[in-house]
Amino acid sequence: MTPCPILAYRHWAPAVVLVLGVLSTAMVFWTYRIIERQWASFDLVNAIVHIRLGTASFHLRLGEAVADGRTDNAERIMPDLDTAVTLSHALLYGGYSGLGMPMSPLAAPSLRRHAETLTVRLGEYKAIALERIADPGSSPIGSAREKRFNAVFEQLQAAARAFETSAEKSLLEEYEKSERLFLAILVLWTLLVAVSTAGLYSRERRRRSAEMALETAYDEMEQRVRSRTADLKQANEMLQAEIAERRRTEEHLRQSEEECRGTQNAHRRDEETGTPPGDTRHRGGDGKDQHEVGGEG
Fold first, then answer.
1. What is the pTM (predicted TM-score) of this model?
2. What is the Cα 164 distance to its own chain's centre?
3. How far apart are the C-alpha atoms of 184 and 181, rounded to whole Å?
């Protein structure tokens, strides 16, 4: 038994609407996730850049302050280094970054290793900087402490550059991965919409064909009814004509029978009275004997 297309449509149409809704929701959610991750990656790269620029500015100003013996100026530039340390801890453990943006702890192992290395280098660099600020005369230009201070600074900058490069690479990979997944969802959504549209179009064509076939069948049935009605009307007219003709025939036979019966009665009376056949003197116009007529009178 072939299933009814309308009943089949009632079964799969809600499922299609549900799947389209789920895919649309997934697209919206994934778009939001892509934007959120991109902003997080931008914040990460921005924090690393701030660390590099802040430590570079601090290093330059501290060198000038120590060379001039102005430790008060050196103390005023400490917030640059403190901001860099706060940023490194926010990258590693999460929290307020000092740049007006809260940050989540890094989850990727490679990025965490870079953040740990950068935090260690910043700790070493800050310890040496505090020693130089506390005793500017013990670290003149060309001294071992200054060389170590510069070496740690170079290591710090190298660690920050490596961290930045890894973060940009991770950002690119995350973007490509998100883009592929988003395109896959979009293609699936488009395919489902196309299939649903084709199904609805096919169903509409079948419905239209069924309507046309029904209209054709109705017209044929109406034509047959008219033809049958005309045949019945003609047959009824013929039957009425036959009935009328039969009635006329019956009436004619009845009249003939009455005439024959009258003739027989007349012959019987002639035989009884002895009147020769054909003698009408003693008969009335209706074939009765005049004496009978007179007696009846």
1. 0.54
2. 43
3. 5
Burial of 97 (0-12, 13-18, 19+ CB in 10 A): buried
Q: What is the tens place of the pLDDT at every residue in 156-209? A: 999 999 988 988 888 788 778 777 877 887 887 788 778 778 877 887 888 888
- Other Cβ atoms less than 10 A from the Cβ of 287: the count is 14
The two tokens of residue 239 are 């039957």
When computed from its CA atoms, the radius of gyration of the chain, rounded to whole angstroms, is: 61
How far is the C-alpha of 36 from the C-alpha of 106, rounded, in Å?
14
* CB < 8 Å & 24+ apart, contacts of 6-9: 9/203
How wide is the angle at C-alpha 211 spanned by C-alphas 205 and 216, nearest 5°?
125
Q: Other C-beta atoms within 10 Å of 185: how many? A: 17
- One DSSP character per residue, the chain reads -PPPHHHHHHHHHHHHHHHHHHHHHHHHHHHHHHHHHHHHHHHHHHHHHHHHHHHHHHHHHHHHHHHHT-HHHHHHTHHHHHHHHHHHHHHHH-EE-SSS-EEPPP-SHHHHHHHHHHHHHHHHHHHHHHHHHH-GGGS-TT-HHHHHHHHHHHHHHHHHHHHHHHHHHHHHHHHHHHHHHHHHHHHHHHHHHHHHHHHHHHHHHHHHHHHHHHHHHHHHHHHHHHHHHHHHHHHHHHHHHHHHHHHHHHHHHHHHHHHHHHHHHHHHHHHHHTPPTT--TTB-TTS-BHHHHHHH-
Please list the ranges in the chain whose pLDDT falls under 70. 1-13, 16-17, 30, 34, 69-75, 97-101, 137-140, 274-297
Do the beta carbons of residue 125 and residue 156 sit within 8 Å?
yes
Contact 185, 147 (CB under 8 A): no
